[in-house]
Every structure is written in C-alpha cells, then in structure tokens.
Amino acid sequence: MVDMRVDLAGVALSNPIVSASGTFGFGREYARFYALGELGAVSAKGLTLHGRPGNPGPRIAETPSGMLNSVGLQNPGVEGFLREELPWLKEQGTKLIVNLSAGTVEEFAQMAEMLSVEGVDLLEVNISCPNVKCEGLAFGTRPETAAAATEAVKKHTHLPVMVKLSPNVTSIAEIARAVEGAGADAISLINTLLGMRIDLSTRRPILKNNTGGLSGPAVLPVAVRCIHDVYAAVKVPLLGMGGVETGEDAAELMMAGASAVAVGTAILSDPMAPVRIRDELREFCESRGISEVRSLTGSLEVW
C-alpha cells in the first residue's frame, strides 16, 4: 500500500495529482466522469477581476506533440465565480486552488481580498499575464515586478499563496527566488512556452492572436529542467506541470523537485487523464517498493 498523501504549502492533499488551471474549467464537465474528490486538488479556470469573452478565433492550433492556445483568459470574473461556481465547488470534496490574473498590482490585491473566502484553499497567482503598467510585459519576466505582485496578494489574504512562473525568461530560478523573498508559500511551474504556427496557404499565423502558449508532451523536458533549477534555488514547495501524460511523467517531475503535479493538456483528449495518472503513479511506486509518494520529491541523483 502506497501512502499517496502530500502537502502543498500547508494544504493537505489526498494525492499529488491536480487539475491544471485553464484546462478543467470549473470541473462541472468532468464531474460526470468521476468525483472531483478523486483528485488531490482542482485548480479552477483562471479568473480576472471582471469577466472576459476571451480572444477571437481561431485560438487553438495543433502542433507536433502538443498544441498552441490563445484563448485569452475567457472567464466569468471574480463576482461571477463567487456567485455561480464556488457554491458548487465547495460541495465536491476536494481542495480548491483559485488562479488569478491581473493587469496591475492593485487588481491583484483587490482580487486576493475578494477570493479569500470559505471554500478556497490556496490562491495561485498567474504572473505570466500582461502588466499594463510595465509597457505590456508580463509580471513574471522581471524579479521586481514578480515580487510586487506576490507582495500585493500576500498583504490581502490569509490563504497560502502560490505563484505561477513563466518559462519565457532567461533565469526562472532568479524569478523564483524573488517571489519566495516576497512571501510566496509555494511556486507552480511551468506556464506555457510562447509559440507560433503559420498557415502556408494564407501566409498568416494560424492563431488570430498571432502567437499562443505551447503545451503538451513537447514541453515536458523544459518543465523537468525548470523544476530542477527552481528546486535547487528555493525552499518552498513546487507544483510541477508541463506535458504530463502518464504516471511516469508525474514521477519524473516529482524527482526533479515537485511536491505535487498538475495535469493540463492531457485532459482535453482524455477526460480521465488525472485519475489514470494518479493510478499509474501509485503503480510506479508499488513496483519499486516506494511506500510514500512524497519521498519521490527531489530524489533525483545528478551525475
């Protein structure tokens, strides 16, 4: 028997598998296939202060071993989430991670305060979103802006704060150290890689937004490297993600340093992916005589 329990920033999870924000909606569609309590936690669809319709299509494009998306944070806004989604999610018997994106430090602070309510277990701060007060750059591309967003959320919530990092930087470890120094209780990584595809018949980008976020199996090696780098740089726990399709993929991210693992793009083609990956991870541990899944975290032995 394998003990599948893990801890993420003081939040006790029954197992290390989490649905990644952006691919799971608010869980209603997937609750038809299995109880959401089967998962360690659910990371709900990313929220902005006010509702957004998202980007115009086409906004998804297939790539070798992955996909590009430029959905554009389509969501009902914080008030819509609190009114329509949270009451239902509170009844599902799982831990709830709420992902928030904002254009300014002030919006991050306001959202953190509004979302610090019963039923929410952890706030995930997406600092890969546009920062309108920083010449359109993402908060997560500079240590000082990443720290500012983290501090704003920490000052306006009693909940644990997890900061989601972008791989589209020179040194992800430097950004990780900055958000840890600003009070982050955990770090999630990686967000999508920036990519583009071209329609050869029209000589235009396939995506109406021109570029999009690359996810899927193609990014797994990048995720492993980033998690390894960040694990060596900080002391807070990590939620690893990026291209996970099997239990062995999840084990790889945990060996690199992740305490828990989020499954994203795989859900879009296989709604049962998170439960299957959880079972495969348990079988991986059983086959190797590992009695506690948390012992995988950081167990990599480098050459």
Task: Provide an overview of this structure.
- The chain is α/β, with parallel strands linked by helices and about 300 residues long.
- It has a single domain (about 5-295), classed as Aldolase class I (TIM Barrel, Alpha-Beta Barrel), CATH 3.20.20.70.
- The chain contains eight helices and 18 strands.
- It has helices spanning about 75-90, 105-115, 145-155, 170-180, 220-235, 245-255, 265-270, 275-285; strands spanning about 5-10, 10-15, 15-20, 40-45, 50, 60-65, 65-70, 75, 95-100, 120-125, 160-165, 185-190, 195, 200, 205, 210-215, 240, 260-265.
- The protein has an eight-stranded parallel β-barrel with strand order 3-4-9-10-11-12-17-18, surrounded by six helices. Strands 6-7-16-13 form a four-stranded antiparallel beta sheet, with no helix packed on it. A two-stranded antiparallel sheet has the order 1-2.
- Strand 9 (about 95-100), helix 2 and strand 10 form a beta-alpha-beta unit.
- Helix 2 (about 105-115) runs parallel beside helix 3 and helix 4 packs across helix 5.
- The longest helix is centred in the last third of the chain and has 15 residues, at about 275-285.
- The radius of gyration is 18 Å and the shape is globular.
- The mean pLDDT is about 95.
